[in-house]
Design a protein that fits this description.
This protein has helices spanning 2-25, 30-42, 44-55, 58-75, 93-103, 119-131, 148-162, 181-190, 204-208, 235-238, 256-272, 306-316, 333-344, 360-367, 370-375, 409-413, 425-440, 447-450, 455-467, and strands at 108-116, 136-141, 166-172, 193-197, 216-220, 224-228, 244-246, 249-253, 291-298, 321-325, 329-330, 348-354, 379-383, 386-388, 392-395, 399-403, 407-408, 417-423, 442-444. By secondary structure, the chain is an alpha/beta fold. It has three domains: 2-56; 105-293, Endonuclease Chain A (Endonuclease, Chain A, 2-Layer Sandwich), CATH 3.30.870; 306-470, Endonuclease, Chain A (2-Layer Sandwich). It has a 15-stranded mixed sheet with strand order 4-3-2-5-6-8-1-9-18-16-15-10-12-13-19, with helices on both faces. Strand 2, helix 7 and strand 3 form a beta-alpha-beta unit. The longest helix is centred in the first third of the chain and has 24 residues, at 2-25.
Length: 471
């Protein structure tokens, strides 16, 4: 008798949970709804635990993030007008207007943009600029390691704070979960202001583990900024045991640093409650170069990703080519369709993804999209010289999109990300050269060979794709 009662209670609990899942996700993403229902029904213990940790309270959490963003925006008085008469708007006008409308950020002109195609080159320049800071240094990294490069950066920051430079550092709770607290405590004891974005403390972890801040941003004196895909860990320089780590990072000197400064100070407001808007953080800057940039953020504040919408607009307006490189490819349905439509329209569309990934689950799920891409005239390459973590898009010799955003659903919908849209033919040429060097280290996938893979492999990959909303 007791077993019948327990069974009835379990079924009632399961039905209530399914009801909650359907209400949680509305009609916005039926694939996620089905995936969660599948998980809790067929893998009850793991599925229910995963749902309560990462799947629930999405609306509640998003509303909290939105309140924080609205509070910052209401206090942030540095607004810019969209000057349509400026000659800089002669190209990509609709894209620039879209970004202005969704981000309230105009095209920031007069920048010099440097492209660093490796972690080694990036850190050589970054550490040099840190040493030359005069007023302040603001740093946000998803992942910082207590290793050789992490130690070098820590020592430089301690030395600079002792010289009177004002330093703030934010790190993500999950991205740095293996970094010893002593590492950050040493900087705090020296005077560096250190904060954690969504710490992994109980019970907060049950509500926030699904939302991570994936940015990699450094701003120095409000005049120089760094952003891209390279975190502060030795593997970004030395590579992995099975190959090199391929990545790119960008340095912006000019008004673009002001845009990234606003991004950092919004995050600082969230983690500390301290609102900073002094002119010293937005100093007058000279014209460094000819590059124009716009800053676009992706945040779990609503149903749409600003980065994804801007990417869709940019891809749809391509006239000659769209070259994409990403470490993780689990696109939204709209992004996948736009890539295919563009290729079928006669545009040269290419995609580089890793053959071997640092995340096997994502790799298997990514493979399920390749056949459809190939059948729709997209050229797909697998990087074979190691692992490519590069997050790049270059379009028509005039636009570069780079930053922290991966082309997967989690990055586009659940993470806090920042990308720069760079309007400059010279930078586009540099990035295109880097892209074709990566193609030389890649193997093009042929449809005839790809479809002949074993059925068991395809079935396994399909299972990972079905579960992809969960990881």
């Amino acid at each position: 008798m007791i077993w019948k009662i327990l069974l009835i209670l379990y079924i009632a609990f399961l039905l209530k949970l399914i009801y909650d899942i359907i209400l949680e996700y509305d009609n916005s993403n039926p694939v996620k709804t089905i995936s969660w229902i599948f998980a809790v029904v067929f893998f009850p213990l793991i599925g229910m635990l995963a749902y309560y940790m990462v799947g629930r309270n999405i609306k509640k959490k998003r509303s909290k993030f939105k309140r924080w963003r609205d509070e910052f925006n209401n206090r942030h008085q540095r607004s810019f007008e969209f000057e349509e008469t400026d000659s800089i708007y002669n190209t990509n006008r609709e894209l620039k207007k879209l970004i202005y409308n969704i981000e309230h950020v105009p095209v920031l002109k007069g920048n010099e943009v440097e492209v660093y195609p490796s972690g080694k080159i990036k850190f050589e320049h970054l550490l040099k600029d840190i040493k030359e800071a005069k007023e302040h240094i603001h740093i946000f990294y998803y992942a910082i390691g207590d290793d050789t490069i992490g130690g070098k950066m820590k020592d430089e920051l301690i030395e600079m704070v002792e010289k009177g430079v004002d330093i703030r550092l934010i790190y993500d709770g999950l991205g740095c979960n293996k970094t010893r607290h002593k590492y950050f405590r040493e900087m705090e004891d020296a005077g560096v202001k250190v904060k954690t974005f969504l710490p992994l403390s109980f019970p907060r972890i049950l509500r926030s583990i699904n939302y991570r801040n994936h940015k990699k941003i450094v701003i120095i004196d409000g005049k120089i900024a760094y952003t891209g895909g390279i975190n502060v860990k030795d593997e970004y320089i030395n590579g992995l045991a099975w190959g090199k780590w391929n990545d790119t990072h960008f340095k912006i000197q000019g008004l673009g640093a002001h845009g990234l400064q606003s991004v950092f100070l919004a995050d600082w407001y969230y983690v500390s409650g301290e609102y900073l808007d002094s002119d010293k953080y937005y100093p007058p800057v000279e014209v460094w170069g000819d590059s124009a940039v716009q800053i676009v953020n992706s945040e779990p504040l609503g149903l749409h990703s600003n980065v994804m919408e801007a990417m869709l607009s940019a891809i749809s307006r391509a006239k000659k080519y769209v070259y994409i490189e990403t470490p993780y490819f689990i696109p939204t349905a709209s992004l996948m369709r736009m890539i295919q439509i563009t290729a079928m329209s006669g545009i040269d569309v290419r995609l580089i993804i890793p053959r071997r990934s640092d995340n096997g689950s994502v790799q298997h799920a990514s493979n399920t999209y390749i056949e459809s891409l190939l059948r729709n005239n997209v050229k797909v390459y697998q990087y074979t010289a190691g692992f490519t973590h590069s997050k790049l898009m270059v379009i028509d010799d005039e636009l570069v999109i780079a930053g922290s955003t991966n082309l997967d659903v989690r990055s586009l919908e659940l993470h806090f990300e920042t990308n720069i849209f760079i309007y400059d033919k010279k930078v586009a040429e540099i990035v295109k050269d880097i892209y074709f060097k990566d193609i030389q280290d890649s193997e093009e996938i042929e449809l005839e060979r790809w479809v002949k893979r074993p059925a068991s492999t395809k079935f396994m990959e399909a299972c990972f794709r079905l579960a992809s909303p969960l990881f």
